[in-house]
Write a structure and sequence with these properties.
Blueprint lengths: L1 H34 L4 H10 L1 H4 L3 H37 L6 H32 L2 H31 L1 H8 L1
Helix pairs in contact: 1-6, 2-4, 4-5
Amino acid sequence: MKKGMTMAVIFSVLVLFVAGSLAQPQQRLMRAKRTFDQSPNRILAVLKANQEELNITNEQIKQIQNLIFAHQEKAIQMRNENAIQRLELQKLLQDRESLDYEKIRSVLSQSSAARQEMFIQRLKQREEINKILTPEQREALKALTMDLMRERIRPLRLMRDRMQRFPRFRDRIRR
């Protein structure tokens, strides 16, 4: 009885250890994706942290901050509109017996247009930030960004290499 209980505890600990070790690569991947965030606040934080190195003035930081706030306000409004459209789509899909395909198509196209507009707004924001910076500052920021990217991609490459060397683990993760 005592031997069976000991074996059950050892087996349980072993299962927990193996499950935890298999889950870690996925956690590292998710963490790496989060840290390579290109959000406006992240860009502003990088600019502030490297203000001296990039020779960015306080006036430029203030201009970029105001620009980011204005764009974020627009983005919040667009996300709210998109949420309303999703709710409208849910209402249309409630009655499965009599679906109005034209209305569904209309809501989906409006939602798609809103996502496209959000993407365009992000591109415009980056362009406006680049206009505030001098060409030398843009080059220094680009070099700094590439260094940060290489630093954050390194764990992903290590995980990829491990998965290639050990196909059993790769197959387990994919399941």
